[in-house]
Specification:
A four-stranded antiparallel beta sheet has the order 2-3-1-4, covered by helices on one side. The chain contains eight helices and four strands; from the N terminus they run ααααααβαββαβ. Helices cover 50% and strands 16% of the residues. With 229 residues, the chain is an alpha+beta fold. The chain has two domains: 132 residues, no CATH class; 80 residues, Transcriptional regulatory protein pf0864 domain like (Alpha-Beta Plaits, 2-Layer Sandwich). The chain starts with a helix and ends in an 8-residue tail after the last strand. The N terminus is likely disordered.
Length: 229
């Protein structure tokens, strides 16, 4: 009974009927739209990316169906999944996850298991929406991690000039970049800082302005390149 519901093609036979082919491709397109819609509901997106999510399951489905029962199946699957690394723009972890979801959906529908693919998409999309709604994985300490870019005159020795101030307001401070600017008449220092209390950030900036002669100071959220994909 379950076989008749979830499987419409025989994986031991290389030939695929036109009817089965059209059903699998149509199911892949529908599930691709579900995946693309799920992603678009909770994320910022571009037209090209959601279009890719909508069409990718059908493309993978056709690849799998065309090599069904052939020794080239493994090579085709590996090649399809490695296409992710050749995207022109580096993606976030969320984008890569959705691409793999679309590929896995196409793989399952290409094997003829339409029902399993539908259940798989429904479960993963539901989990995606729930986790995003509850802000799963968000850190409450994110506001403590800041990057300070401080401009100082060239005659000011930047070695240790701000450490005393940072020690008062931050648990850790690291000078990561020193750059000359304005024809060498100024330095731009970049510090990665973990604040003790984010609400006292303005106090810290005021004291830094006093030390650097009221030149430009930029504060931004610290990039988490060492902890995120």
């Amino acid at each position: 009974m379950l076989d008749s519901i979830f499987g419409i093609t025989d994986s031991t036979v290389m030939t695929v009927s036109l009817g089965s082919f059209l059903i699998c491709v149509a199911a892949s397109l529908v599930l691709g739209l579900v995946i693309a819609g799920c992603y678009a509901m909770r994320s910022r997106y571009t037209k090209s990316f959601v279009l890719t999510l909508a069409l990718l399951p059908a493309i993978i489905c056709v690849i799998i169906m065309m090599v069904n029962g052939n020794i080239g199946t493994g090579i085709a699957v590996a090649g399809a999944f490695t296409l992710v690394r050749f995207r022109s723009v580096p993606g976030t972890a969320k984008e890569i996850c959705m691409i793999f979801l679309a590929m896995a959906t196409g793989l399952v529908t290409g094997m003829g298991y339409i029902g399993i693919a539908a259940i798989f998409v429904a479960v993963i999309c539901a989990a995606f929406l729930i986790y995003d709604a509850i802000d799963f994985g968000a850190t409450k300490r994110a506001g403590m991690y800041k990057t300070f870019r401080i401009t100082i005159p060239e005659d000011l020795d930047y070695t240790g000039v701000f450490e005393e101030v940072f020690d008062e307001y931050a648990t850790s401070c690291e000078l990561t970049t020193v750059k000359t600017t304005n024809m060498g008449s100024m330095f731009k220092l970049t510090y990665d800082v973990v604040l003790k209390d984010p609400s006292r950030e303005k106090e810290l900036i005021d004291k830094l302005r006093y030390r650097n002669g009221n030149l430009e100071i930029t504060v931004s959220k610290q990039a988490a390149v060492t902890t995120e994909l």
